[in-house]
Amino acid sequence: MNVTALVKYVPEPQGTPTLGHDNLLIRSGVDGALDPGDEYGLELALQLAEASGGQVHVVSMGPDEAMAAVQRALAMGAASGLLVTDPKLRGADALVTARVLAAAIARTPADLIVAGAESTDGYTGTVPVTVAEMLGIDSVTAVRRLEAVADGFRIERQTEAGYDVIACPSPAVVTVTAGATEPRYPSLKGIMAAKSKPVERVDAADLGVTDLAATQSVTQVTDSPAKAGGEIVQAGDEAVAKIADLLAEAGVI
Amino acid sequence: MGAVWVYAEVTPEGPHPAALELLTKARRIGEDVAAVALGPGAGAAADELGRYGAATVYASEDPVFADHPGRPAAHVLASLTADHAPSLILFAGTYGSRDVAGRLQARTGSTLMANATDVLAPDRARTEIFGGTKIVDVTLAGPEPRLVLVRPKATAAEPSGGTATVVAVAVDVPADARGARIVERHEEAASGPNLDEARVVISGGRGLGGPDAFAMLDELATTVGGAVGASRAAVDAGWVPYAYQIGQTGKTVKPDVYLAVGISGALQHITGMKGAKRIVAINKDADAPIMKIADVGVIGDLFSFIPALTQEVRRRAAS
């Protein structure tokens, strides 16, 4: 089974994000990483490919630095990659991103396309299903377990009440929740091997995506009202009583 | 200006509470408000949807919407949109609604904004970034309908006492557009209230050190009738399932009391809980960022504090 994994290069999650003068998140020239949320899907892809003798192909859209995310995926075991990078795509919204990714994915046949549930920096959480609709294929989000079966996939999907078991035909797009798999660390051997794996770099025009119009604009950014600080107490009998009092005042006990 | 629509999730138990919040908001920004309710329970839900402001409810009881997540609803919504040309459609920020909105966007080619905390006009919405420290106002442009996903509990639902006219929707979803099919449904019933509605939420973070310590939080939660949540760190470590996650990439909760246990207070987490009325943090680190927003910060060992608190609550309940 061949699997395509979508990965996003995001500003370092532990770092401090900043906005540029155009109110867009600064992604260039800051420390970044392959979105930790994408690693769960990437790990699932690697496991499925290994079990079936197939390959994982990685697709990403981002600034030039985003190649680091593709390289990490290759180091983890993906066989090939494609990076869509284009100054015209700076600030691309969910719709433009979906158009680009759909066109990029269509270049390489795959039985399954995996993505994270939502990115760490944008957290819109809809791009993968928009891509699925554009490709005319099925999708299942919030996947916590997936196995390949005769006519497609048997999937456990996280729900608010628990989980659903879903029968999904192939090909499909799935988004994988955090904790569904334990992502592997790239080995030194993997990191070395990544350097000679095939990676393509394309721009929007190469993919035939020309409608890049922005349909949202930020009109202002203001600080939220700061919350007033509270009191600090040392743990002990008094603190226990204090918190029990607080629960009682709230009418909870 | 076209109508403001609300995509209302419905089940035989009634409309999803978020739908009533969205209708309350829709009434304030548009004069012509309608709801779309697809699936078993739609007809019965129409009364309540009307009471919260929908003048019209486009409804279908067809089980195809319950059995196949997302795809059929998006298909029918696209067709309704083409017929009636609303300006704006509001969706709840739930797993199910996100799937419908995301697919609809591919059909309408219109803008989609997620995680809105407020909707100010049919073409203006608001969100928060950087862990909730910045408020961002966004203008929505391009073709209609604009699609906005609103975070649950961003608005308090208020009835307006109206009644809705129900318009039956013809369902014509070709077999190859139904998509993936639900074959089993499993409830992993928490013994107490669910996270979205609990008055007390007790959340565990990296400081718990592993999955076992969550049993201690469960016990306290049972004693106070609350629900257990978790930070992203605990979920990423595989200690609890994703459904427990509170924060930017998880649930937003607004309980009366939030206990953050062994949680450092990364901005990502704070986004999901800063609306709680009273925040208590238990941590061994007095400099943990969570202390800045806690009403009371308890510095010390959570492994002895939590059981002691549970015991004290039981003692008071018994006397």
Brief write-up:
The complex is a heterodimer of chains A (253) and B (319). With 253 residues, chain A is of the alpha/beta class. Chain A is built from six helices and 13 strands.
What is the topological layout?
The complex is a heterodimer of chains A (253) and B (319).
Chain A (H helix, E strand, L loop, with lengths): L2 E4 L2 E3 L20 E3 L1 H17 L3 E6 L5 H10 L3 E5 L9 H13 L5 E5 L10 H9 L2 E12 L2 E7 L3 E7 L3 E5 L11 H7 L4 E4 L13 E8 L7 E4 L2 H13 L4
Parallel strand pairs in A: 1-4, 1-6, 4-5, 5-11, 6-10, 7-10
Antiparallel strand pairs in A: 2-3, 7-8, 8-9
Chain B lengths: L3 E5 L1 E2 L2 E2 L1 H13 L3 E6 L3 H10 L4 E5 L3 H4 L3 H14 L3 E5 L2 H14 L3 E10 L2 E6 L4 E7 L5 E5 L14 E4 L12 E7 L12 E5 L9 H11 L2 E4 L1 H5 L20 E5 L5 H4 L7 E6 L12 E4 L2 H17 L1
Parallel strand pairs in B: 1-4, 1-6, 4-5, 5-11, 6-10, 7-10, 13-14, 13-15, 15-16, 16-17
Antiparallel strand pairs in B: 2-3, 7-8, 8-9
Helix pairs in contact in B: 4-5, 6-9
Distinctive features:
A: alpha/beta; two-stranded antiparallel ribbon; 27% helix; 29% strand; B: 319 residues; alpha/beta; 9-stranded mixed beta sheet; 5-stranded parallel beta sheet; 9 helices; 17 strands; 28% strand; elongated
Radius of gyration of chain A: 21 Å
Percentage of residues in DSSP E strands of chain B: 25-35%
Number of DSSP helical runs of chain B: 9
Quick one: how many beta strands of chain B? 17
Q: Give the overall pLDDT of chain B as a whole number.
A: 93
Distance between the termini of chain B: 62 Å
Q: Let me know the largest β-sheet of chain B.
A: 9 strands, mixed
Q: Give the helices and strands of chain A as they follow along the chain.
A: EEEHEHEHEHEEEEHEEEH
Average pLDDT of chain A, rounded to a whole number, is: 92
Assign the structural class of chain B, choosing from mainly alpha, mainly beta, alpha/beta, alpha+beta, or little secondary structure.
Answer: alpha/beta
Helical coverage of chain A, percent range: 25-40%
